[in-house]
Specification:
Layout lengths: L8 H25 L10 H28 L7
Helix pairs in contact: 1-2
Length: 78
């Protein structure tokens, strides 16, 4: 875990996931279990935030994972 902070894309991807996906889930989950004042919310703003961060976050996570794996020595190398 010590090398992960060196890779900027490995930090931006999870940041997009937390910020972009967390708000819609913070509205949907309490509404589903009955804690939200509106039982059927229409979170259009957070939904647009999720839509605009979904694919960039997935791509950045994939690139960050690739960078980390490429930098690690292979266990199969002689």
């Amino acid at each position: 875990m010590g090398k992960y902070p060196e890779y900027i894309l490995a930090r931006i991807g999870p940041g997009l996931v937390v910020r972009g996906w967390g708000l819609p889930f913070a509205i949907i989950v309490p509404a589903a279990i009955g804690l939200w004042p509106d039982p059927d919310p229409n979170p259009i703003g957070p939904g647009l935030l999720f839509f605009s961060t979904c694919w960039p976050a997935i791509v950045l996570l994939a690139i960050g994972i690739h960078q980390i794996r490429r930098a690690q020595p292979s266990a199969c190398a002689p």
